[in-house]
Amino acid sequence: MKKRGPIPLAVALALAAAGLAACGGGGNGGGSGGDAGGAASSASQPSDSAAGGQADGKAKDPVTLTFLIANTEDTAPYTKIFDAYEKKTGNKVELQSLPGGDYDNLIMTRFSTGDLPDLFLMQPGTKQYVKLRAQETLHEWSGESGVWDNMVDTIKQAQVQDGKIYGVPYGSTGAYGIFYNKDVFAKAGVQPPRNYQDLLDIAHKIKDAGVTPFYEGVKDGWPTQIFYFTGWVSDVDPAIGADGVEKLNANQLKLTDIPQLKDLFEKQKKLKDDGLMQKNVLAGTYDELQNEMGEGKVAMAFMLDGIISQLEKKFGKDFVRASLGFFPFPSDTDSGTAMITPPTQLMVPEKAKHRDAAIDLVKFMLQPDNVNSYYADHPGIPIFKGATSTLYPAQEDIKKYIDEGKSQINIQNRLTASFVNFDKTLQNFFIDGDTDKAIQDFSDNYQKDGKAKLLPGF
Amino acid sequence: MDSRKYPLYFSFPALLVFLLFFIAPTLVGVYYSFTDWNVHAQSVHWIGLDNYAALFREPRLEKALTNTLVFAASVTVLQNVIGIALALVLNEKLKLRNVLRLVFFMPYVIAPVVIGYVFRAIYHPDHGIVNRALRELGLGALAQDWLNDPKWALFSVIATDLWRVSGFAMVVYLAGLQFIPKDLTECAAIDGASYWSRFRRIVFPLLAPSFTVNVLLSLIGSMKVFEMVMVLTNGGPGYTTDVFYTYIRSTFSMGQMGYSTAINLVLFVLVTAVGVPVLMLMKKREVDL
Q1: What residues make up the domain containing B228?
Q2: B234, A221 contact by CB (below 8 A)
C-alpha cells in the first residue's frame, strides 16, 4: 500500500467557496435589488393597451393581470368578482396565493427584483408605505375618481400620509379579542366578564366544569401575540394615551418603561401557571385551537376574527351563528375596549406591466354590486356606505363596541416600527417565564426594526 | 497507458460557469457584508466592520453557532457510524439485500420539507406515533413533547435528519466495499483474525476514501442545515433550535441584506475553518492498494 498525496489546497478552497456560494443563494436572492427603487426601474414601463376599452366595455387586447394575495385570506370572494371583471372586459386575473407568514418578505423581494405584480393585497396601515417605499414604487390614489365616493371617511383618513394615499382599503373592519364557545359558557353557567378579575373567576369555573379555559397556539407563535395586542387597547392605551404612542413612534418612550405592558406579561404568565391553558401548551397550533374550540373542549381564545371563517369552514354556519361569541380583553376596571384593525388594502405598483388595467380593476371591485358580492361571500363589518353585509352574532358583538365608541385601532397599525420576532420572544417566555427578559427582548427587537427601517429617532 | 494530457482549454467552459455562478456571487457577497445594504435604504454605503461588530454583540449568534456545531458534529458522526454499519450488514449475502438497500436509501430522495411535515405528525405529543407507541408499550413515562420541549427539540431534529441521510452514507460505503478484494479479508479470516480485527485492520483503512467523501459532505451539508429545522421547529421553541440559516432568514426577512450577508460570511469562514483541516487530515490517512 502506498500513501496518497494531500489534496491540492485549491480544490479544498473551491469546495468551501462552492459551499458559500450555495449559502449565499438566500442572501443574494435579492442581490440584484440592493436598491429596490433602482431594480424596480428596470421593470417594463406601463404598456397597457388593455385599459382603453371598446364600446361594449371589452378591451381591444385583453391582458392577464397578476393579483397577489396571502394564503391566509379567503380567495372565494375575489374569484367571483374577477370572473365578473373578465366577462365585462375580457381581461383575466391570475390570482397568486403566497404563504401568509412570509407574505411581506415575498412582496418586498418581488419589488427588489423587479418582478412586479399588477395588483396586490397588503396588510393595513400607512406603515406599509414605509416598507415598500411607496412614494417611489406605488400608484398614488388620493385624486383618483371613482374610488372614494362610498368609502367611510375615517377609513379613508387612516390611509393618508403627508396628503398621499398609496393603498385602497378593501374588505371589512377586523377585530381581535376573546372569542368564546357559548355552549361551554352555558355549561359552566358563566357570562362574559365585567373586568379582568371576573375573567379569571370565569376561567376557574370553566376549568372546574372539566373544560380547558384558554388555548394558546405557542408552536405557531403568532397566536400568542394577540393577548398583548388586545390587552394593549384595554390596559396600555388608557395609561399612555395618544401622546405615549407618538413617543413610541419617535423612540422617545421605551417599551420597557411601560408598567402596564409588563403587567400584561405577568397576566399571561399567571394564566399558564394557574393551569388555565391547555396541556402541552408549547405544542399548541392555530389549527388545533379551532378544532378544540369547535368541539367544545376549549372555552376561549385570544384571537383575531379570521377564526370566524375558519370555524365556519370546519363546523358550519350554524355553529358560528349559535355558538361563537366575542368580548374584548377586559381591563382591571371594566369590560375593556375592542381592538379593531383597518381593512387590508389594494396596491398597484406604479411600474406594473398592466398598471392602467389594474387601476380599472380596483375601480370595478369598488362598484356597489361587487362590494356586496364580496360581503355576501365574506361577511364582515362594512367599510363602504350603503353596503350590505349579514353579520354573525360575534361580529355584531364587535360592532356594538365600535358603535359605542369603545374601540381602538391595533397598536401595530399605529406604529411604524414593528414588533419583530415577538412570537419568538413569547415562545421563550412560555419556556422560562422570565418577565423582565421577555419585555427587554420585546423592546430590543422593536428598536432593531426601527433602526433597520431607518426611522427618525431610532 | 497513454500519457498525453488533454489541453487546458477543455476546462474553460466549466471554469466559466464556476466563476460566474460561484466565485463571482461569493465575492459580491463578501463586499455586501461590509455595507449597510437594506431594503428600506435608497442607497448602499460601505460601513466597514459595523455589521460584524453588531453581529458579535448579538446573543442569538452564540445560540445559532452552538446549535449548528452540535447538529453538524452529531449528524456527521452518527451518519457515518450508521452508514458503515448498514453497509457492512447489507454487503453480506442476505435474501432481501437489494430491497433493504432500497428501503434505507429511499428517505434520501424525499424532499426534506416533506420529511419535516411527516415527522411533525410523528412527533406530536398527543397523536404522534412515537408517543402512542411508547404508551402502548407501557412506557408512557418516556413520552415527550419531542419538538416543543427545549430539552428534546434539537435532538429530535438531529434524529430526523439522520433518518434521512444515513442511507446516502450507506450507499457510498457499499460502493467502497465493492473495491476491497475478498482475498484480503478471507486470508485474514483463515489466519484467525476476528471480524472486528478484520474490520479495523483491513476494511476500515481501505474504506478511507469513502469515509473522506462521506464525512466532508456530511459536515458541510449539516453546517448548512435549514429546511429540516425550518419545517420541524422554525428554530424554536424560542431560539432553542436556531441555526445559522434560520438566523440568516430572520434578518433577511427584516430587510437587513448587508447584515444577513455578514452572517453568511461568518458561516463561510466556519465551514472553511472546519472543513479544510478535516479534509487535509483525512486525505493524509488514505491508502491505495
Answers
A1: 62-288
A2: yes
